[in-house]
Amino acid sequence: MTARIDHARASRYASRALRQFALGAGLALGALLVWHGLLVAFDVPTYEVPTPWKALRAIADHPAEIANHLWVTVQGATLGLAGAIVVAALLALVVARFPGVEQFLVAYAVVVRTIPLVGVAPTITLVFGRGLVTSVVCVLVVTTFPLLIAILRGQRALPPELHELFGLYDASFADRVRRGLAPAAAGSIMVGLRTAAPFAVLGALLAEWLTGIGGLGTLMVASATNRRIPLLWGTAVVTAVLGIAVYGLVGVAERWSRRQGLEES
């Protein structure tokens, strides 16, 4: 009986994944057709904006070059996002322990978040040099704030009865974190990642554009400088696919964590 249920569940997940893949493929094909249609409708010179087929051909002609730069971008975005999760969780713990600092931390986070990364990146480069660390720090700057806000919302969403129960049993701060705040933060982080993950890719690209440390951003700048226009647009296509893939993976992880929570409960 259990094996039959597991098989049905696997079939349902496979069917859902197939539908999502078909939808994504259809949207991608539609975007390429719209791209081509706009070029024809407005008679845009192909030396300025190539046809989508030329951009795809550029990807096929330079797989190793694109793959190497893609790996640099993925590293910067992933490490920066992981660091942002840790920093946001630690700040949320500080707020839970000392509620009076919440307004100060949120105000400080808003100020940092509203400062254009274009103005901050050169300073980060001077401090950390032209390397992967600069990309990681830039990603951390742009992604910590949405994660922190999501976690704080999750903490405030805890039912008052739970707080009363903690007070009734004189629960320690560690028990409050383990039995209340941590589970709420886990779900809230997944929600925050929906917003932060695309920003992670954007932050890594911007760091690469400004510092030339390698990555898809650097490849785009180099391609534009050297008038390799099809490769420039091909790299833009790869960047868009990367952003969509990251968003999709976060959605998959969110559904999996939610399912795990339902099974445990």
The total of helices stands at 10
Strand content: under 5%
Let me know the largest β-sheet.
Answer: none
Could you tell me the radius of gyration in angstroms? 22 Å
Report the CATH superfamily of the largest domain: MetI-like
Secondary-structure class: mainly alpha
Give unreliable regions as ranges: none
Measured between the Cα atoms of the first and last residue, the distance is 21 Å
Q: What is the number of beta strands?
A: 0
SSE string: HHHHHHHHHH
Topology-level CATH name of the largest domain:
MetI-like fold
CATH architecture of the largest domain: Orthogonal Bundle
Mean pLDDT: 81
Proportion in helices: over 70%
What shape does the CA trace take?
globular
**Which CATH top level class of the largest domain fits?**
Mainly Alpha
**What is the number of independent domains?**
2
Written overview of the protein:
This protein is globular. By secondary structure, the chain is an all-alpha fold. The longest helix has 41 residues, at 2-42. The chain starts with a helix and ends with a helix. It has two domains: 20-49; 51-264, MetI-like fold (Orthogonal Bundle), CATH 1.10.3720.10. It has helices at residues 2-42, 52-61, 63-97, 102-114, 117-128, 132-156, 160-168, 173-211, 216-225, 229-264. It has ten helices and no strands.
Question: How would you sum up this structure in a few lines?
Answer:
By secondary structure, the protein is mostly helical. 87% of the residues lie in helices and 0% in strands.
